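Notebook B, p. 112. Complex prediction, attempt 2.
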Amino acid sequence: MALTRLDNIVHRYGSILLAGVCGLVALACCLPPAHAQQLSGQTASTRRLSGQIVSARTGLPVPRALVRFNDRALLADHDGKFEFDQLAEISGDLQVVKPGFAMGTDPSTTPSLHVQIDELNGPIEIRLYPEAILTGTLTTPDGEPLPPILVQVRRSVFDESGHHWYPAGSTQTDTHGKFRLPVPAGDYKIQTQYVPSTAKGGEAVLPVSVPLGDAQGSARAIHVHSGEEKNFDLHPTLRRTFPVMLRVEGDVDQGHPFITARRTDGTTLPINALPSEVAGELRTSLPIGSYTLTGRIANPDYVSIAEANVDVSDHDISGVVLKFVPIPAIPIELQVDSSSTSDNPPPNISQFGLSLQNADPSGEIGYPGVQINSRREAPSTLNAAPGTYRLQARNANQWYIKSASYGASDLFRQNLILTAGSGGVPIRLIVSNQTGTLQGLTTLNGRPTSTWLYLINGNPSATPVLTLHSNPDGTFTDPYIPPGTYQVIAFEDRYSADLADPATVAMFSDAVQSVTVAAGTKSTLTLDAVSQSELAP
Amino acid sequence: MNRIWPVTSLLLLLLLFNDSSGRAQSATTFRVSGVVINGNDRSPVPHCHVVPDLIQRDTVHGLGAAPVDGVDTDEQGRFSIGLPSAGSWALRASAHGYRTQLFDQHEGYSSEIVLTPAAPSINLVFVITPDSTVSGVVLDEANEPVRHAQLALYPIHLLGLDGSQPSGGGSANAFTDDRGRYELVGLAPGEYRLSVLAQPWYAVAAQPRRFQSGASTTPLDPSLDVVYPLTWFPGGTDPQTAATIKLAGGETRQADFQLRPIPATHLRIMTAQSNEVPPTGVGTPVRFPQIAPVSPGGSSNSISMTANPQGQIDVGGLAPGWYRVQYPAEQGQPGRTSLVQVIPGSTRTIDMAGDASTATITVKIDGAGGGDDIAVSFVDVDHPENMFRTDSDGYRGGLQRRAPVSAQADRASSRTVELPPGRYLVDQFNGIPISRRATGNGRGVPARKQVNQAIPDTFVTGVTIAGNDIAGRMVSIPAGESSLTLHLGLGRASVGGFASFEGKPSIGALVLLVPVTVEQTGSITELRLDQTNTDGSFHIDGVIPGQYILVALDHGWHVNWRDSATLRHYLGHGIPLDIRSSARVIQNLEAQAP
């Protein structure tokens, strides 16, 4: 749900990557001489588009890729070469498909190349990125393969609403305990499924995460490059399980609770608890170990939670009480800054895409613990389990959040700390439409090109990084930039890393420019983008 | 000590609640012990998990049904399990590298361990065969890996007596990975056929959007408008050319494929709309039909449909096979269905307004109370892989969907089915035809031995089509609409007894209950199998009344009884039985040497 407003840009009007000198010479040798002079006097009968598809990793030709140009399609030959002739169109979108390869490095977009036929002065080179492969073996500590176990891979994604771990694929281990998952280059976390009991011996298989021994919500990840294969030998712990009877009390009328059990090492197990014969009692089983059980019942308007500690040693457990307590909703108040112009109606809270990032790295992933209710008629509220959070928001066109506070806490600088007793105190947002304009040109190796721009706010903000996208001719204009001083960096393709972290920006210090935007003024910037090849995805 | 208490307490419970079976048990200890060995090299199998399950015939919720804990064999493969009661016990073993197997398992049959107060314990050699594997790589015409190709491995012992391929069930499946590799694991030794189904990735990616109306776009380059036909190992497209893959226990076989694309067939559908609406007609949205394969090999994964301004629909991306083209009933308009066979390399045109290539059968059930819940199946005599059912509108191996309720039954006792005209075997459909209703399948993983599984008490006694009564189940179905009445009888019988050989119980013998009409296509009665238990007993349920010959072959599982000359040889020494409705026939017999 936390997609940025840029996600609706499906096409990447990327640059035309001209072949290197060697490539041009090689192509010119094997193509008919007519190709050398395409520039002038083109008609539909002579207008053609030709090129070669190569691996971005090795530079070697990629054979037999499917090339689509507008509504025509063909298979490139064994040397990756292709040619469309007698084109009626003077421009169009070129798309290349090949199993195991992608045109871009960001899997959230379906890239295509916008081609102006008349601007071409020869064959074009299209680089495809080979996918990366995550492989591994799941065995017992003494090397015996485990029965088929689900292995899930999550991809680390940073966007305007913060950091996310999006599912990027799953597979089952085979009889040798092996798994294999092709993924786009990027940052990943591998998780194996918790198996409550196996057929043989009835032992539970505890989940394993890679990076190993890592708490789930942490930002640490495995990086795999395009074309790289990384292998992981994983040895999940096997534990005997014992029945655990849970007594649910309190506010439990609204549905079946969702229960997780967190081990002392930070591993979190989803718990399947079924009603027992006794009313108000749930039956489950847990492997030997110490746990904090957390139950949650989500209602349309509020959330009830319960917590209990359990030690499972060598016998059945009963008498564990999960007492569900509704968490009071926190009202969200929105005020328009006094300096704002009044010619536009004030925005609705939902437009800001508010989210809370769990500041506790061991927080759950995949299960939203935070609920923000913003409806037109009713006042907006927020429900979240007790915890420590960081507020994230995006801009709503000309409106941006100028300040956010909770009691005495400045939520731009401090975490939002919610305790079981909190409630009643509102979160106050002050919004403003006093923005400035940032305009300019982005280039790639000196050529004006469409790029992704990231604006890193020098001051604390609910939106630490703004994302812009420049046009195919490299120009960009955004009239809704909150005032402030920004570090700006452009990338050839979408770049998903924690740019709010100064260490990340430091890696690109040559490409970073600083710009100050003031309300009601225009600032101009020209910058050269970091190319895909520099990133070595 | 702590082991004995629960056993005795359970016996006490038995004494308290089950006076008929608890008579002489209080002083007796029941026990099954033995050694588990590898059938290939006779070596012991250590750490093998052995679990007994009590078989409870004719009991709904019997006492003593509490599961008995299994044990692991020791380093010498030995095990010993105390049991709470006498009775028939199914013993299953599982170990790493071995699929779960029942004692002396053959195909779907095994021998139960029968313990009585007179013979309270037994010592066994439990032979299990290691799993076999078929693996390989699927490459395309340019030697590049084919991703996500679907492999299906069919055990030949599940074939019909005529060698026909069963439709659907009983197969093991796998998909290729990004390298085109696949592995079919956990296989029982035996003979198999292997097929692969895939789509050329570039054909799928090059297809226009699935449903497109209005002006047709540039026609697809013919070299991209291709499909892979269902291909049988080692590479033919005709099932008759499929090689037999013979797997020994523990063997790994390599079976690689190279797929060759063939031109996709196009289907042109003339709709009532295209006949009625003038060419200039604007505004009426084109209705696209539902298209589903009704035979194996057909695939709907890459079907694309485009409509021209006249409302004609062009369907691309079809692999050879039978398809059902269906317009569901809508807004008072009756639904229309046509069956069409797609043959490589041609464009077929069908006219939905008046289609003469489809037979529509209205089926009535006579007897057995009209049988509201009975579905009727039609198996093509010449192509038994094609099966049609009254309650299904797709190929049951893959895209099984229920027909809309309105189409299912106009009245409680009638139902309709569309099929190509031809010769069919009609039967009530219970899931798996009885001749294949063994507990095992190609993967041979019976969790527990099932008794009385899903065999209804009804059976087909005859068929009436177009007013003519037909003895047997084979009918010729003409094009157009016709009605068929399926006559059902009630009261299946059972046959049981003991088989002996040279004065001793014949253990693990193959028992065959063979209809005298076994060589007639469309016979009412069916050939049935069983395997004798450790006391020589056997029991066959759900027998259709009729005339049979009962045969037992001592250690006879390697006999090729499916060969009619071989079978005839043994039938000469069998026992003729005339089995009446609902009879409980007890017949002991002397097993023949194999």
